[in-house]
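[Solved] Which block belongs to which protein?

Original post:
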Amino acid sequence: MSVFNKVMRPGDGGAWVTGASGGIGRALVLRLAKAGWTVYATARGADSLAKLAAEAPDKIIPAPSDVTDLDRMREIVAEITGEHPLALAVLNAGIYTPMRANDFSAETAAKMFNVNMTGVTNALDPVIKHMIDRGPGHIAITSSVAGFRGLPDASAYSAPTAGLIAMAESLALDMIDLGIRISVINPGFVETEATSVNSFEMPFLMSPEEAAARIFQGLRKPGFEITFPRRFGLMLRLIGLLPNRAYFWAQRKMLGWDGRAERG
C-alpha cells in the first residue's frame, strides 16, 4: 500500500498540533479531540492553551512553547512519546504581516521566516527521528496557496510558504521508503487575526472551523496535498501557469492597482 494511503487513527498514538492557541490550529485541536485523539497543543500563550484544554480536559494536553525554540520542540516530542507513540503531527504555527515594496523590512521578513519556516523545521527534526525509530506516522505541514506563486502584499509570506511546499515534496521522496506519510496543507483565506489586516477583498473567505473541517477530512483521505477551497486553489494554479508578464498583469488587474507602487 502506498504511504500516501496511510491514514492514522486515535488508536495508533497521540497527535500534536502547533499554532494551537487560535484560528485554524485551535479549531483543529477541538475537532481531533472530538474524534477521539489525545492531542498535545503547542503555542506561546499558556493561558490560551489552558482555556483550550478545559474544553476537553481528558483529550487536550497543553504543551506551551515558541516553535523557534528547537530544544523545547525536542523536549515536547520526548514528553509526548514518553506517554504515546506520536502518530500524527500537524505543524501549523505561522504568522503573517502584509508587506509591499515601499515598507519592506528585513526585521519583519526575518520574523516571518523564523516562525513560518525555521519553526517548522524545529518541530520536524524530533518528529521525523521518532517516526523513523518507532514506526509509521503522518506529518502534515501547513503552508498556504500563497506559496504557489508570489501574491500581493505577501513578499515575505509567499517565500517561506513556497519553501514549505518544496520541503514537503522533497521529504516525501525519502519518506515513501520510510513508511512515513507527509502532507502539505494549503489553505486559502481564513478569517483569523492575521488576515484581518488585509486591505483587499478576500475571495472564498472561510471560518477557522470550516478550514479545520477541510483539514480533518484531508487527513483521513489518501493523498499528499490538502488545498482548499478547491475552486480558489485551482484558479491560482491556472493563473500561475501564465508567463511572467501575463501573471503580473493579471494579479494587478484583479487588485485594481494603477501601475505604480504605493509611496509613503
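(Second protein starts here: sequence line, then its C-alpha cells.)
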Amino acid sequence: MPLRSSAAARVAVLVLALLGAVPARAAVFIDDAERRVRLPETVTRVMAANQAAAVLVFVLAPDKLIGWAHPLTEAQRRLLPARYARLPTVGRLSGRYPTATAATVARLHPDLVIYCGPPSPAAAALADRIERDTGVPAIVADSAIGRSFAALRRLGAALGVAARGDTLGLYAEHVLDTIRGTMLIEPPAQRPLVYYGRGFDGLETGPAGAAVMADIDQVGAINVAASLGPGESVRVTPADIRFWNPDFIIAQRRSFYDALLHERRWQGLAAVRNKRVFLAPDAPFGWLDDPLGINRLIGLYWLSSLFYKSMAQPDLPTLTAEFYQTFYNVKLTNRQLDALLKAAEPPPPSAPPPAAPVAPLTLPPAAGIPGIPGIGALPALPGAPSPPGQMQNPGGTPTVRP
C-alpha cells in the first residue's frame, strides 16, 4: 500500500509538471482581413511589416516596437522622443521590394508581426506567408483613415493596452465626426478643386479612390485628377495642371512647393495667384501620406482649415500641439510648432476694405436755445443727410467652383 501511494504520488507530480510546462492557451484574434490569429499570452516585442504599422504600434505601445520599417530622417528624429528616435531600422516585409525576410524575423524574435494596409486578399496572403515562413503570428490592421478609430481600439486590445487604444480611438472618432459635421453644413458648391502634387517634381498624384488622396476625399474636396484612375498613382504633365487650374495645390515635397512659388510656368494658375499653395508637413510623419497610417488624422483638421474659410475653424497650432502630445508623446516648443506650420498654415482671412471717412454731421444751433449737455444727438434737420450707419463688407469669401 505504501508503495502504491508513493507511485501514485510520483505520477501526480509528473502530470503536474507536464501541465506546468504547457503554455497557457493563446487568445484568438480576428484581424481586419477576417483571419483567425492565435496571439501569445503576452506580447512584448512587435515587428512592423511596414512603416504604417510601425507608427500604429508606436502610438499605442512604443516600448513594444522593436524597430522602424524605414530609416528615419534627421528631421523626423528631432520630433520623436529620443529613445524611440534611436530605434533601429529593421526593414519591411511588404511591398514590391521588401527589405526584410524570414531570416530577419528569426533574428529579431518578435512575439507578433503587424501589417497595416487595406485588408485585401493580398494582405491576407502576406500575413499567412509570414506565419508559415517564420512561425510568428501576423495581424492585418486596416489602414483606412475613416476606420482609424476601430484599428486603434482593436490593436490596443491585442497589444494589452486597451485603455490607451480606447483613448486614441475616441480622439480619432471625434476628428472624423467633426469633419463629417463640416461636410453637412458646407454647400457642395463651395467644395474646392484640389491638386495634390507628390514627388520632387509634383507631377505624380492619386486618382479617385487612391489611398494617398484619402484625407482630401474625407474633407469633401474635389480631386482634379479623379478621372485618371484606376490605381494608386498616376503621372501628369504641367499642361494637365494648367488645364485643371485648381483652386488649391498641396505639395508633398519642398522642391515642388518652391517651384510653384518661383517658376514662371506656374504663375498663371489660380492657386498660385490667390496664394493657395501649401506644403504638407511631414515630420515626424506625413499629414497626408508617407506613411498611409493614423498619422494622417491631423491632416483632416489641416485641410478643413484651408478649404473652408467661411466656417469657424478651431485653432490649428493648438490642435497640432495637442495631437503631437496625445499621439507621439511630444511636447512641441513654439519654435518647433512655427517651423512645422510655416508653409502649411492658411493665410489670415482678408480684412474688409476700410470704409471711406465721412465728415461728421454739424447741425446749426436752434435759434435762441443754448446747447444742453447730455441730451444726445439732435434730430436731423429737414433735407440734411442721415448719419452714416455701419457699412457691411461688400466682399466676403470667394466662391469656388463646384
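Accepted answer:
You had them paired correctly. Confirming on the second one: The chain has two domains: 24-170, 187-341.
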